[in-house]
Predict the 3D structure of the following.
Amino acid sequence: MDFKFYCLLLVSLFSILLTGCSSVADRQPVYERPALHEMPKRAITSTEYERAELPPLDKDSTLADYLKYAALNNAGLRTTFEKWKAALLQVAQAKALPDPQFTYSYFIEEVETRVGPQEHRFAIMQKFPWLGKIEARTDAAAAAARAARKRYEAEKLKVFRQVKDAYAEYAYLARATDIARQNLQLIEHFEQVARAKYRAAIATHPDVIRAQLELAKLQDIVESLEELNKPIAARLNAALNRSVDAPLAAPTRLEPSRAKIGHEQIAAMLKSQNPELAALNFDIESAERKVDLAKKRFWPDVGAGISWIETGSAFAPGVRDSGKDPVMLTFSMNLPLWHDSYAAARHQAEALVRMQTHRRKETENSLLTRAEEVLYEYQDSGRKVGLYGNTLVPKSEELLRAAETAYQAAAVDFLSLIDAQRTLLKYQLEYEKSVRDTIQKLAELEMLAGGELSEAKRER
């Protein structure tokens, strides 16, 4: 009795292990480290992701260092990474068979038959879904996992855009502050010139007053720019998942982007590479697999098992098989009778496919529209970079030098000199704004296009 019992128990446990355990690849899925500007190539585990070393952010750090820091530390990106991990783990669950069912029965009242009293009953049953159900369920989970990966990629591009946008603003603020200080020193020089001419009775007192008024206005501009540094630095720190008051080194000066990007190129890249659209494609695929699964609910699931009844000593020793333990094969099948419910589930799944298809089209239209707007803004800011950098700033510098020479020679009044200085300050700041705008708009275009618009890629 004990020997048979333990044998059946071992068989049951072995069956459970065979049906319940997944492969090593299923138990230990790998994930890919976020890399800069391209899809990651080296697979790492979640633990390795946690242990990734953050790059130092100091005076020698470049924009690439900030991007790498954000890729490894941004809270939103880590969230989508865990969602991707959870979706991958769902695939192993979807392709597994239902748990085997083991039952044990004890006969409370002794039943005497010609073969002996029955004492215990052991049974194990394994349920098998109808052909194609597991495949459809697994395919749906796999498509959902691919969609989660694409949303992780989309979030990475979004984070990169946020970092580039904040860093460009931070760099512009540093340049604008330097320009304002230089102009402040220039006005202080003009004020000294006006005082000297006033003492020599060459200039009037209003010239000195005008210089002092302009000096006060520029001091206010410098102070405002210095105070603006705090919220801009907090914005950059937030994208890096650092404390908002964490110290940041002075940014390196950014050069304007001069990429030549056409409307057709952006539209083609967006349609083929945008991870948000790719995620919606996989959502549609997952919904279609769920339609297949809903159609198979009209077919029954089957089960097979074995049971053994332990029987006591024989009452009729002379009777054949008296006292032996009967062993029985068992077959089961559910009866799919509620066709209206199954049909409703199929129609529901088909409606979800249509919904995902319309959502994908709506998203594509919105992204293409936004890409056209951003491309215009990018090209416009690039044109202004050339206008201010090549013409207006050099000409305003030349005008200021000429106005200062003429004022010292008493050929023009002090107001003309102040106007020339204001013009130079305006065009210098406009040039730096245009440089900032080209970087920010290119970052948004890369987010929409689904990848870096580098010079090498544009040439290819």
Remarks:
- The chain has one domain: 33-73+129-299+336-459.
- The chain has twelve helices and six strands.
- Residues 3-11, 13-44, 455-460 have pLDDT under 50 and may be disordered.
- Residues 33-73+129-299+336-459 form a domain with the Outer membrane efflux proteins (OEP) fold (CATH 1.20.1600.10).
